[in-house]
Amino acid sequence: MRVGFIGAGLMGAPMVQRLIEAGHEVVVHVRDPARRPEGWTTTGSIAEAVEGAEVVCTVLPDTEQVREVVGAVLSVAAPGTVLLEMTTHAPAVARELAAEAEARGIVYLDCPAAGGVPAVRTGTLGIWVGGPADALERARPVLAAIGDEAKLRHCGPVGAGLVVKLVNNYLVAVNAVASGEALAVVREAGVDPRVAIEAIVTGGGGSNAQLANLYPNRVLAGDFEPGFKLGLMLKDLRHAIDLAEQTKVPLHPGPAVRDRIAEAGEVYGHEVDFGSVARLYGW
What is the DSSP letter of 31? Predict the structure, then answer.
């Protein structure tokens, strides 16, 4: 398929590579031509990236950029184009943009992804979709190339994919902070944290993926290179808490976890991995 791609950053770049390797014709919008990887077709113009595309993918930082870029895409995309907006942002904004797209004969799908950069590279990325099911089927070859088709889920109407992603990332953040606290207690009590992890993952705490994976594989090894940036986790938490307020469901640990991750951002910066929150507990 002919695919226009906007947002080839930390997550987007390996997505582009997978699309190319799957045989799709991809035109990538890049702001800096000097950063063009070998074998890519690139342009500095959104209009040129979108021209003739059956599917357009956007992967952006947050709502402000989504409004700007999607607005530009809608102004030039042909009727019938399927827009796969893969940013994690506000579901309400996704619904607004979907209405604008529909008025122009363009289909908007919110398609947030789960698993981070390593999952893109290994083809194990999960993608959760909100929007018309028939449009998902049209775009399935693109999404299947980017991620794991077995983990591709149609969650409901526009915004539903984002609701699922925000709740998922809320749980990830809560578990990451709780694991850091728990392992700090273990350490200060004189127990080897790796021994504790091996024991706990076979017990009731074993459902905590952050304890089972993030801590033994990254944190205890001192690896805080960004897979999922701390600043993006903080952004997702804010959206999740906003969503909870809109639905009038209190997320009691939410503000405390948000504040702890915000503190880590102030200390270590927002470009490190979100697992850097563990460093507040001496890791």
Answer: S
For residue 48, what is the enclosing H or E element? Answer: helix 46-50
Question: Phi/psi class of residue 115: alpha, beta or left (left: φ > 0; alpha: ψ in -120 to 50)?
Answer: left
Answer yes or no: is pLDDT of 202 > 80: yes
Q: How far apart are CA 65 and CA 51, in angstroms?
A: 20
Q: Which of 118, 15, 98, 10 is nearest to 57 (CA)?
A: 15
Distances (CA, A) of 170 to 103, 145, 155: 33, 27, 18
How far apart (Å, rounded) are the C-alpha atoms in residues 135 and 147? 17
Pull the structure tokens for residue 228.
């999922």
Query: Which position has the token pair 């959760």?
Result: 128
Q: What is the Cα–Cα distance from 275 to 59, expressed in whole angstroms?
A: 22
- List the one residue out of 18, 12, 15, 54 whose CA is nearest residue 31: 12
Q: How many Cα atoms within 13 Å fall on the side-chain side of residue 23?
A: 2
pTM over 0.70: yes
Active-site positions read: 165
Whether residue 214 contacts residue 173, with contact meaning beta carbons closer than 8 Å, is answered with no
The predicted structure's pLDDT at residue 235: 96
Task: Show Cβ contacts of residue 267 under 8 Å, excluding neighbours closer than 6 positions.
Answer: 279, 280
- pLDDT tens readout for residues 119-132: 999 999 999 999 99
Three-state SS at 83: strand
Classify 158 in phi/psi space as left (phi over 0), alpha (psi -120 to 50) or beta: beta
What span, in angstroms and rounded, lies between the C-alpha atoms of 80 and 93? 21
**Block residue for tokens 């952050």:** 210
Strand partners, 108: 83
